[in-house]
Design the sequence.
């Protein structure tokens, strides 16, 4: 009888423990955040350096929905982030590229041409007190897992201390097949055509590139490339300054001289020293022409709807009371209507933790339709929105409410990349719109 | 043999009546033998006494070999077996082991009823062993070898005789039963002792004497006839049973077989012994008559269990599931198999079985085994409860965290990230809860084990005596005298 009671007691205890274990399975948390609105890609470390994220073209894979190149401005670092059709992101760090490819320093900027060639800007190359900076052309091969291997071809260097490569851009500037790169230094604009001799840098006394904001190692120099004037070639748009006022200049390629000509169009904005601190080119109003958005921190973003041949003043001015609104801007092409929304970073918002506001300018609206922020801002370091943009998914991930998703916004905070799969958009359902059943 | 010795003794003591016993003896009755016989006997006894006392003197002077010779000389004069014993002791002291062995051997051959026959035989064997071991050794080694033998001393010699012979001899009081029957010679402890002599038809006599090891003590008592009393003999099927006459409260006056005088009239006799039902008989005693009363005893119809002692008091005794008494106690039990249990707070139970026979007297020597302390069990139980409470608390916290995350994930205005720190926090809550549950079960199991753990059981040993079962078989004969004549009385125990 005694042993029976003991057995029953032990059975009861075992059952109680089993219930406890079943009710408290740590594995329940393993997938609880799979459908979290924001995917985090952490490049690791406690660095306060910033990321630069370059969206890459989707590859022909049934499992990879999107890719991006991720670099850091605090150390030689090259990685590709791949998003599978379930939205899971995997970071493939290319340690070979960081070492054997001899980047020579941290990558501050990158751009990709239509043919897939990538230009990496390393303004700190080769180190020391007066680095010349260097840009390198990288070709890529894609492994089965979606990661990208880089083959690097060193490009031109700048003058000592001029930090060539602090900003780069790509487009069809010369009209030559393959497209062109443009690399900025502290004082020059270097055109890098697809082949042949590299022309002399822009030599125009009327152009003074915008001074970098204080605090950064080499800062950030705004540049954008796009066909704003209605001709057959893209123009280079630069943020500059004149008499302590911000200006934006449009530089064109002169096929007769084979060099960049002095600006034919200058926007002064006439509003503040911050005018021209950031630039973005896209069809924001949905009329089929590229438009120019100019950030004018601390409180404005101005829109110039293209073609800009006869445009001198902004058609739309977005004004937000802040101390850093417009420090960074980027287009968010949704792909459904052909128009792009405008992402505006405001590092001063949320107690200097930063936020990004998204504007839909198809109806010249100046009220943000959505606001992005870092939900972990209390524990994360760095400014949210240092790098921002959109990833093209080309419909590989669907939304039950919005149809197939063409692009999703991303932003960096310190060493982390945040991809916003869903967010509250005014007038739309707040339910998680993702749908992972459809593949392309 | 006994009769011969008796006759011999009679011849010996007839001479010594006047000089060695109290004056009352010689005044009460004339000597039974002729003057010539008394003179012859007296001369031999006196020579034996002289030799004995001389031997004792030499013995005390450590002249053992001479002492032994004198003891043997005394024996030649009077063949008292004690002389042989003393000679053997003296030879042993003189390291004359072979002679000592011979004398001891002769002693037990001569005195076939020697009370110390077993010890003497063992002594002989020991001496033989010493003799064999020391056969090749030097004299000093023999001395050393002899040291291992137990100490031994010479005996006193007491001679008790009476007129008429065949009187029962009691020592100190009659309750111990008959010590001997006259004539008797042997050794007594060297202390004051009261001799009681009693013979049927004669008035009992008492003498206070002090035996000595260096002197021969002769006691001769002439008993006077008593015709106005009646003589009774109480016999029973149970020897050694206590005999009570008229008043039980004053105690037993003797043991069966009992003989003695009684005043004429009605008397009540009781005979009782442990293990037997007491028996009673009313008798009528006529003056000058001798009657034999047989009072047989029947064994009791139960056994007795003497359970526990002062050291084990307080325990409850259960017999066949029923509580019967609190230890220490005597409990009568029906013959047969019984299940015993003793319970006491703080002690492990004793469980056992006992087979009881009629008249069995069983002593139960109990030894308690303390129960293990439950403090560790309670400590484990408290820890277990704490672990379970902690597990429940952490589990609830984990559930709350999970609910919060799920709620926030569905609320896109919160923009929860895939690396939300609450994921790990929730995992830690659940892991903590699981660890607590595991530890809770473990400590609960330990607590259970410690609560149920028992120490070694209490134990008991049983010793059963049955007074109705004879311890040995003995057949003896004693001279007796009855009014109608003389003869031998036989008493047997089987």
Sequence:
């Amino acid at each position: 009888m005694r042993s029976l009671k003991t057995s029953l007691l032990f059975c009861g205890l075992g059952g109680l423990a089993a219930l406890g274990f079943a009710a408290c399975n740590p594995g329940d948390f393993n997938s609880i955040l799979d459908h979290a609105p924001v995917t985090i890609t952490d490049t690791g470390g406690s660095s306060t350096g910033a990321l630069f994220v370059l969206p890459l073209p989707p590859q022909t894979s049934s499992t990879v929905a999107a890719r991006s190149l991720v670099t850091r401005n605090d150390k030689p670092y090259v990685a590709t982030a791949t998003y599978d059709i379930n939205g899971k992101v995997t970071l493939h760090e290319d340690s070979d590229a960081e070492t054997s490819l001899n980047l020579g320093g941290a990558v501050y900027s990158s751009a990709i041409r239509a043919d897939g060639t990538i230009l990496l800007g390393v303004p700190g190359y080769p180190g020391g007190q007066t680095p010349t900076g260097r840009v390198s052309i990288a070709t890529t091969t894609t492994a089965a897992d979606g990661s990208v291997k880089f083959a690097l071809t060193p490009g031109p260097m700048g003058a000592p201390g001029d930090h060539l490569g602090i900003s780069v851009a790509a487009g069809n500037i010369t009209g030559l097949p393959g497209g062109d790169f443009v690399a900025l230094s502290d004082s020059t604009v270097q055109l890098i055509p697809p082949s042949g001799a590299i022309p002399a840098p822009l030599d125009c006394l009327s152009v003074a590139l915008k001074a970098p904001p204080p605090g950064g190692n080499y800062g950030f120099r705004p540049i954008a490339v796009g066909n704003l004037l209605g001709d057959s070639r893209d123009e280079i748009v630069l943020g500059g300054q004149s008499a302590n006022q911000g200006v934006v200049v449009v530089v064109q390629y002169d096929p007769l001289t084979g060099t960049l000509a002095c600006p034919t169009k200058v926007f002064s904005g006439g509003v503040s020293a911050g005018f021209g601190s950031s630039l973005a080119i896209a069809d924001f109003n949905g009329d089929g022409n590229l438009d120019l958005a100019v950030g004018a921190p601390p409180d404005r973003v101005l829109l110039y709807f293209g073609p800009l041949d006869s445009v001198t003043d902004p058609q739309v001015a977005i004004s937000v009371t802040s101390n850093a609104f417009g420090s960074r801007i980027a287009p968010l092409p949704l792909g459904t209507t052909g128009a792009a929304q405008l992402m505006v970073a405001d590092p001063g918002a949320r107690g200097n933790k930063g936020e990004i506001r998204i504007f839909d300018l198809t109806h010249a609206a100046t009220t943000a339709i959505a606001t992005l922020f870092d939900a972990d801002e209390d524990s994360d370091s760095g400014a949210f929105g240092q790098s921002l943009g959109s990833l093209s998914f080309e419909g590989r991930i669907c939304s039950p409410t919005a149809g197939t998703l063409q692009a999703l916004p991303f932003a960096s905070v310190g060493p982390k990349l945040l991809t916003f799969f869903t967010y509250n958009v005014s007038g739309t359902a707040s339910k998680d719109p993702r749908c992972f059943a459809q593949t392309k | 043999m006994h009769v011969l010795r008796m006759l011999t003794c009679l011849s010996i003591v007839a001479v010594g009546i006047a000089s060695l016993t109290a004056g009352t003896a010689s005044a009460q009755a004339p000597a039974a033998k002729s003057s010539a016989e008394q003179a012859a006997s007296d001369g031999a006894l006196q020579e034996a006494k002289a030799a004995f006392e001389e031997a004792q003197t030499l013995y005390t002077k450590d002249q053992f070999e001479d002492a032994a010779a004198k003891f043997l000389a005394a024996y030649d004069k009077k063949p008292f077996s004690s002389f042989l014993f003393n000679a053997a002791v003296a030879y042993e002291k003189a390291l004359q082991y072979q002679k000592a062995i011979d004398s001891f051997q002769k002693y037990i051959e001569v005195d076939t009823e020697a009370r110390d026959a077993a010890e003497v035989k063992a002594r002989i064997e020991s001496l033989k062993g010493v003799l064999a071991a020391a056969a090749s050794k030097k004299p000093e080694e023999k001395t050393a070898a002899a040291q291992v033998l137990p100490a031994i001393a010479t005996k006193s010699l007491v001679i008790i005789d009476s007129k008429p012979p065949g009187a029962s001899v009691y020592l100190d009081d009659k309750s111990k039963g008959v010590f001997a029957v006259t004539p008797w010679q042997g050794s007594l402890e060297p202390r004051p002792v009261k001799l009681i002599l009693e013979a049927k038809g004669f008035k009992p006599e008492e003498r206070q004497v002090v035996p000595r090891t260096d002197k021969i003590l002769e006691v001769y008592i002439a008993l006077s006839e008593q015709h106005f009393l009646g003589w009774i003999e109480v016999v029973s099927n149970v020897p050694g049973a206590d005999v009570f006459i008229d008043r039980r409260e004053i105690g037993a006056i003797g043991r069966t077989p009992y003989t003695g005088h009684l005043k004429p009239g009605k008397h009540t006799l009781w005979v009782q012994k442990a293990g037997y039902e007491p028996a009673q008989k009313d008798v009528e005693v006529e003056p000058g008559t001798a009657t034999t009363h047989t009072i047989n005893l029947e064994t009791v119809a139960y056994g007795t269990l003497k359970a526990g002692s002062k050291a084990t008091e307080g325990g409850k005794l259960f017999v066949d599931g029923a509580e019967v008494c609190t230890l220490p106690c005597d409990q009568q039990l029906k013959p047969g198999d019984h299940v015993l249990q003793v319970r006491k707070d703080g002690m492990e139970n004793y469980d056992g079985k006992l087979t009881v026979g009629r008249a069995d007297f069983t002593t139960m020597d109990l030894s308690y085994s303390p129960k293990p302390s439950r403090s560790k069990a309670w400590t484990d139980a408290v820890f277990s409860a704490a672990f379970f409470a902690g597990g429940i608390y952490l589990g609830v916290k984990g559930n709350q965290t999970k609910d919060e995350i799920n709620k926030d994930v569905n609320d896109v205005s919160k923009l929860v990230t895939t690396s939300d720190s609450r994921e790990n926090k929730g995992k830690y809550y659940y892991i903590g809860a699981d660890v607590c549950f595991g530890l809770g079960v473990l400590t609960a199991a330990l607590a259970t084990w410690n609560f149920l753990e028992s120490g070694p059981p209490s134990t008991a040993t049983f010793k059963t005596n049955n007074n109705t079962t004879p311890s040995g078989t003995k057949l003896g004969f004693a001279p007796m005298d009855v009014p109608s004549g003389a003869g031998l009385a036989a008493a047997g125990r089987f």
Q: What stands out?
A: Chain B has ten helices and 26 strands. Residues 1-40, 470-494 of chain B have pLDDT under 50 and may be disordered. The first strand of chain B starts at residue 157 and ends at 163.
